[in-house]
Sequence to fold (284 residues):
Amino acid sequence: MKLLVGKHAGRNAVFAVNDDAATNLSLLSSDVGADLRSLLTNPELLQSLSARIAGSDKVAVGDIIPALPVERPGKTICLGLNYADHAKEGGYDMPSYPALFMRGLESLMPSGAPMVRPKSSTKLDYEAELMVIIGKGGRHISPDTALDHVFGYTVFNDGSVRDYQRKTPQWTPGKNFDNTGAVGPYVVTPDELPSGASGLRIESRVGSEILQSANTSEMMWPVHKTIATISEFATLNPGDMIAMGTPPGVGHARTPPRFLKPGEVIEVEIEGIGICSNPVVDED
Fold:
């Protein structure tokens, strides 16, 4: 199922999407709530609602203002250097263990919202990424069962302020400027995609300019191995999100560098999931 969390008629709700039409699941059951949180912990509810979607009232997807799929995710854990060619273009050695960092809530915003270039830098970069939303929590998860813990997949643009990212070996500052990490708008359940969302085309672009173009099969740590690795040191909970790293073609590695500018619209598209599109603006 393809799901969209967003505002319609003044209220946030969860919608099931079919082409350009959407069904408000929150109207079909008061147990659904205003984001995915209830469905993450009650997959049987989603199953029961699926049979009622065909005969329900529809709204236009274009009339829904996207919101974060999970309003307040507990953890957002991100992988760096998960595509070999991206590691090479950044001048890094091939990692033997995933490069992991975390993002705070204020750094995230939904598809459609402005991506903010901060006052302190002009080096706002783009990063097309697959994002995993955890449904079933756990610790010490086996790679063989790790995909059972995935509720769905969405699109992420890991907007990065490069000069701040490279001030120290730790990437936290450059990855946590407010309103730089775009999520969504759609969350697609695993039954609609290849196992581990592998084999999907992933691209970023501004207008007709294609910036990145690759395939999720090129990830060095696929989804099941990543979940298992993270769960060795951290308990994963429903609503936690994992960003799976970006392919080559980022702006700071180009000659000359190609950073995002106010007035541009940056799009990230993953085959079978959708397009995350955000206008770029200067900080107020």
